[in-house]
TrEMBL record:
Stored Pfam families: WD40, zf-RING_5
Annotated organism of origin: Carnegiea gigantea
Protein name: Uncharacterized protein
Residues in RING-type domain copies: 15-63
GO molecular function, one term: protein kinase activity
Keyword terms of this UniProt record: Metal-binding, Repeat, WD repeat, Zinc, Zinc-finger
Domain Protein kinase, residue spans: 158-476
WD repeats: 547-586, 678-707
UniProt xrefs under SMART domains: RING, S_TKc, WD40
InterPro entries (UniProt xref): Kinase-like_dom_sf, Prot_kinase_dom, WD40/YVTN_repeat-like_dom_sf, WD40_PAC1, WD40_repeat_dom_sf, WD40_rpt, WDR86-like, Znf_RING
Length: 838
C-alpha cells in the first residue's frame, strides 16, 4: 500500500555505519567528542587496530581519533531522536563500513595496473653483471659482439640476455627516474601484443619443464637497454653441435644417448605446442643440458636466432624486390653451416613480410606445428651425421627453392634423390635395426607440411626403439593438450621484430659507453606550460631556480599569504615572493639558530619562528613588513634543554612546540600564555604535525605519539616495542588516515588506519626532510638526493615505490611541496625551487 501525500516527508536520520534509522531502543544515537553521532551498537562493534588503546576510537564519519570507553556513557543526540520514527527497525549485527574512494593525482608515470602486473618480474639493478666476449654464449652467426652475463641471484650462474626495449636517456634532465620506474616506462611504451607475448614467455618458462627458466627483466642503467634474462643450463660451455664430434661412432653409449635427446626434445616441443607456441627457427645454441644431461630449449636464444636470421636476410637482399632460388640456397647453406635451421614455410613467410617475390616450386603452406617438426628432425640429423649434415641438405633445398633452369618436376627428382641418400647415410651410421627411426626423420622433412608426422608420433617411435632401453622413464605425452588454434610463432612475433635500431644499438652502441648521455640530454630540454612538479617528472622535463640570501644552513620552509618563508642557522627568516621568487624581506631578531617556522592565517596573518635557545617570535605578515616582531617570548629551560626543534599550528589556532626537554608545549595565540605541557617522549621532540584534531609528534626515541587536541591527552604510540634498534624520527607528515615518518637510518615508515603498512629503506643516511602531496612522497637527507616515491594500493595491498630522484650538490635539510612546486632547502645555505615550465 502506497503512502498518502500527507505522510510523505524527509527521510529519517540514520546511523552512518549500519544505515539504520535512529530510535530510542535499538539504534540510539551517541555523540562523539568530535561532534558526530553513530548508533550505540556500531560504536561498540567498530574494529580497532592493535596499535589503538581501548580508550580511543576513530570516528566513522571524520576518522578523527577521539576518547572512547563505553558507548552508554556518551551523551544521546536528542535532536536526532526527535526526527526518528517511533517504531524500531531491524538492526544489522554486522555493521557495514565503507571506505572513501581513492583520488588519483594525474598524470601517471605509468598505470598502477601495469606496476602490479610486472613488479615481481623486475630483477634488482645489481643482479646481473655483463661480460663482453666475442663469439661466446650466443648464436654463431657472427654479426657483431655478443654478450653473456652472470646473475648474482643464483650464485654467479651465466645467463642469457635478450634486448626487449630501451629507456630513452635523452628524456632525463635534473630528475633521474628510479630503476623500477625506468623498467616500467619501457614496458609502458610497449604495445599490448608485445606485453602479451612477453607475459606468455614468462608463464611458459614456469609451466614447462623442458624450457629454460626466465629469471625476469633487468635494465642496464648505463646503456638504457631492458633485457629478458634467461637461465643457461650448461653455462654456454657444452652445445649439442659438439656432441657428435665427441662421441665415437662405435661407442655403444651413443645411440641410447641420442634416443634420450630425441625423446626429451619431443617433450620440449610438445610442451610449447600445448601453449600454442611455435619456435619457427632453431639453432644448436638454443639447446642446452643441465648437470644431469637433460635437454632444454632456451626461448631467449630462439628469439636471438630469429633476429640474426632477419639481419642475414635483410643484408643479403639489400633492397631487392625479387630474389632467385640460387641466391636463397646460398643464404640457407650459410645458415646450415652455422648450425641454424629454418623451415621452408618459415623462410617463405619472412620473404613475404619483406615484400619479396620468389619461386616456390609448388611448396606453399602457412607456419604451424609442422614447422617445428621440421626443426626437430634437423637437430637429430645434425647429431647423427655430424658436420656433414649441411652439405647433405643442399639437394633438399634445391628441391625446395630450385634454380633458374630447373622446373617443378626436376625439383621433385632432387628431393627423391635426397631421400635415398639420407636413408643410406642413416643406415650406415645408425644401423639397420632402427628402420622406424630413419623413416620418421625423413618424413619429418617432407616438402609438404601436411605429410609430416606429429611430434608425439616421433616420440613414440624413438621411445619404443631398443636404443632407448637404458633411458629413464618419461611421462606419456598428451595429444589432446596441443592447441589447434591461436598459434603464436616466436620468430614472427612482436619481440623478435622489435625495431632493427634496437638490435643494432644493443651490439654496438650499447657497448660503447663513453658518451655522456646526461650532458647530451641537458641540451634537449623543451619548455612546457604545465605548473606541477609531478607533471614535469612524468615528462622528464624539470627546471629549477636558485634562491640565494641565507648565510648558513636552511632549516625550515613554509608558505602563506603569497610568500615563501625560510628559516636558517644564520638566525634570520627570509621572505620570498611566490610570483617571481624574488627576495622581499628579512626578519631579524633571533639570537640563536632558527630551527622552525610556521604560518598562521588569522585576522592578522602571522609568521612564527623558534630557535634553539627557546625563543619564539611572532611576525606580522601585513605589507609593508616590519623589522620588529609582534610578540616574542622564551620557553623555560632546564638542564635537559636543547632548544625548540619543531612547531605546529592546530585548527583552533593553538601553537605547539617540540623541544629538547622531551616536552610538547601548547601556547595560546590570543594571549601567548602556556596552556599545558604534554609529556611522554623519552628524548628530543624533533618534528610535529597537526591534522583532524590530532597532534602527531616524532622524537629521537624512535616513536610517533598521537595526542588529542581537545584535552591534550595521549592517544596512541607508533613504533614503541617494535623489533630491532630504534632509529630517531626526524620528520613526519600526517593527513586523513596516513602517517609517514622519516628516520635517521634512511628508512621511511607508513601507518594507515593505525597499522604499519610499509617500512622501506629509501636513503643511504639520515632523512632530514619529508613532504607529501596526495600519493606522492618527497624525501631528502644526508645522501644529497631528493627521492620521489608513490604510494599505491589500499589496505593490505598498500605499497610504496620509488619513482625517481633529483641529484643535489648538498645535504637536504628542508622540503616543501606546495602549489605544484617543490621547494628544497640545503645545508649549503641555498634554496632551490623545482618546477615545470618557464
Amino acid at each position: 500500500m502506497t503512502s498518502s501525500p500527507e505522510t510523505i516527508g524527509p527521510e529519517p536520520p540514520e546511523c552512518p555505519v549500519c544505515l539504520q534509522p535512529y530510535n530510542s531502543s535499538d539504534t540510539i544515537p551517541r555523540v562523539l567528542a568530535c561532534g558526530h553521532s553513530s548508533c550505540e551498537v556500531c560504536l561498540a562493534q567498530l574494529p580497532r587496530p592493535p596499535s589503538l588503546s581501548s580508550a580511543v576510537i576513530r570516528c566513522p564519519v571524520c576518522t578523527q581519533l577521539v576518547k572512547f570507553s563505553d558507548p552508554t556513557t556518551l551523551p544521546k543526540n536528542i535532536d536526532l531522536l526527535r526526527y526518528s520514527p517511533s517504531s524500531p527497525k531491524p538492526h544489522h549485527t554486522k555493521p557495514l563500513i565503507k571506505s572513501p574512494p581513492r583520488r588519483r593525482f594525474p598524470p601517471e608515470t605509468f598505470s598502477p595496473e601495469l606496476y602490479a602486473a610486472w613488479k615481481d618480474w623486475v630483477l634488482p639493478s645489481g643482479a646481473v653483471l655483463i661480460d663482453i666476449q666475442v663469439g661466446f654464449g650466443r648464436i654463431r652467426i657472427d654479426l657483431g659482439l655478443s654478450m653473456i652475463a652472470k646473475c648474482r641471484l643464483v650464485d654467479d650462474q651465466k645467463v642469457g640476455l635478450v634486448e626487449i626495449g630501451r629507456f630513452d636517456l635523452g628524456e632525463v634532465y635534473l630528475f633521474e627516474y628510479s630503476y623500477v620506474s625506468k623498467v616500467m616506462s619501457v614496458l609502458g611504451r610497449m604495445n599490448d601484443d608485445q606485453r602479451t607475448e612477453l607475459g606468455t614467455l614468462l608463464g611458459v618458462s614456469l609451466r614447462q619443464p623442458r624450457v629454460c627458466g626466465v629469471l625476469g627483466l633487468w635494465l642496464d642503467v648505463e646503456s638504457g637497454l631492458l633485457y629478458l634474462v634467461t637461465e643457461r643450463k650448461n653455462d654456454g660451455v657444452l652445445s649439442l653441435g659438439d656432441l657428435r664430434d665427441w662421441f665415437d661412432q662405435e661407442n655403444q653409449g651413443w645411440m641410447p644417448f641420442l634416443s634420450m635427446v630425441g625423446v626429451e626434445l619431443c617433450e620440449a616441443f610438445v610442451g610449447l605446442q600445448s601453449e600454442g607456441i611455435v619456435c619457427g627457427c632453431l639453432g644448436v645454441s638454443c639447446l642446452c643440458f643441465d648437470e644431469f644431461g637433460h635437454v632444454y630449449i632456451d626461448l631467449g636464444e630462439v628469439l636471438l636466432t630469429g633476429r640474426k636470421i632477419y639481419q642475414c636476410v635483410l643484408e643479403d637482399l639489400d633492397g631487392k624486390r625479387r630474389i632467385e632460388g640460387s641466391e636463397l640456397i646460398a643464404l640457407v647453406m650459410d645458415l646450415l653451416n652455422k648450425d641454424v635451421f629454418i623451415s621452408p614455410e618459415m623462410l617463405f613467410e619472412l620473404m613475404h613480410r619483406e615484400g619479396i617475390e620468389m619461386q616456390r616450386n609448388g611448396v606453399n603452406s602457412k607456419v604451424d606445428y609442422s614447422s617445428d617438426v621440421w626443426l626437430f628432425a634437423c637437430v637429430l640429423l645434425r647429431l647423427i651425421t655430424g658436420k656433414k649434415f649441411a652439405e647433405g641438405m643442399r639437394n633438399y633445398w634445391m628441391a625446395v627453392l630450385g634454380a633458374e633452369r630447373e622446373g617443378v618436376s626436376d625439383c621433385k627428382i632432387l628431393y627423391l634423390q635426397w631421400v635415398e641418400r639420407m636413408n643410406a647415410t642413416l643406415e650406415a651410421l645408425v644401423g639397420s635395426e632402427y628402420p622406424s627411426l630413419q623413416e620418421v626423420l625423413t618424413k619429418c622433412l617432407d616438402l609438404d607440411p601436411a605429410n609430416r608426422p606429429l611430434i608425439p608420433d616421433g616420440w613414440e617411435i624413438i621411445r619404443g626403439s631398443n636404443a632407448y632401453r637404458c633411458c629413464s622413464h618419461v611421462s606419456i605425452l598428451n595429444r589432446v593438450s596441443i592447441k589447434d588454434n591461436a598459434i603464436q610463432c616466436l620468430v614472427l612475433g612482436e619481440l623478435c621484430n622489435i625495431s632493427n635500431d634496437l638490435s643494432k644499438e644493443s651490439t654496438i652502441s650499447g657497448l660503447n659507453r663513453e658518451e655522456d648521455n646526461h650532458e647530451a640530454a641537458a641540451t634537449q630540454v623543451t619548455e612546457m606550460k604545465v605548473g606541477t612538479v609531478v607533471k614535469g617528472l612524468s615528462a622528464g622535463k624539470l627546471h629549477s631556480k636558485d634562491l640565494q640570501g641565507h648565510l648558513d644552513c636552511v632549516t625550515s620552509l613554509c608558505i602563506g599569504g603569497g610568500f615563501l618563508f625560510s628559516a636558517s642557522f644564520d638566525k634570520t627568516i627570509n621572505v620570498w615572493s611566490l610570483q617571481d621568487f624574488t627576495h622581499v624581506h628579512t626578519f631579524r631578531g633571533h639570537e640563536q639558530k632558527v630551527m622552525a617556522v610556521v604560518f598562521v592565517d588569522q585576522e592578522k596573518p602571522l609568521c612564527i619562528s623558534a630557535d634553539n635557545g627557546g625563543g619564539i617570535f611572532c611576525w606580522e605578515v601585513v605589507p609593508p613588513l616590519g623589522q620588529e616582531p609582534l610578540k616574542k617570548w622564551h620557553e623555560e629551560k632546564d638542564w635537559r634543554y636543547s632548544g625548540i626543534h619543531a612547531l605546529a599550528i592546530s585548527e583552533s589556532g593553538c601553537l605547539y612546540t617540540g623541544s629538547g626537554d622531551r616536552l610538547i608545549k601548547a601556547w595560546s595565540l590570543r594571549d601567548y600564555t602556556l596552556l599545558c605541557s604534554m609529556e611522554g617522549h623519552k628524548s628530543v621532540v624533533s618534528t610535529l604535525a597537526s591534522c583532524n584534531g590530532v597532534l602527531y609528534s616524532g622524537s629521537w626515541d624512535g616513536t610517533v605519539r598521537l595526542w588529542c587536541l581537545h584535552d591534550h591527552s595521549p592517544l596512541v604510540v607508533f613504533g614503541e616495542g617494535m623489533p630491532g634498534r630504534m632509529s630517531s624520527v626526524l620528520s613526519l607528515h600526517a593527513d586523513q588516515n596516513t602517517v609517514i615518518a622519516a628516520h635517521e637510518n634512511g628508512c621511511i615508515k607508513i601507518w594507515a588506519n593505525d597499522e604499519l603498512k610499509s617500512s622501506t629503506q629509501v636513503h643511504q643516511g639520515a632523512v632530514f626532510a619529508l613532504s607529501k602531496e596526495d600519493k606522492w612522497v618527497f624525501t631528502g637527507g644526508w645522501d644529497r638526493s631528493v627521492k620521489i616515491q608513490e604510494i599505491s594500493g589500499e589496505g593490505v595491498e598498500m605499497d610504496i615505490r620509488e619513482v625517481g630522484s633529483v641529484a643535489c650538490e648538498s645535504v637536504i635539510t628542508a622540503l616543501l611541496y606546495e602549489q605544484g612546486m617543490l621547494f628544497v632547502g640545503y645545508a649549503s645555505k641555498l634554496i632551490k625551487v623545482y618546477h615545470c615550465g618557464s
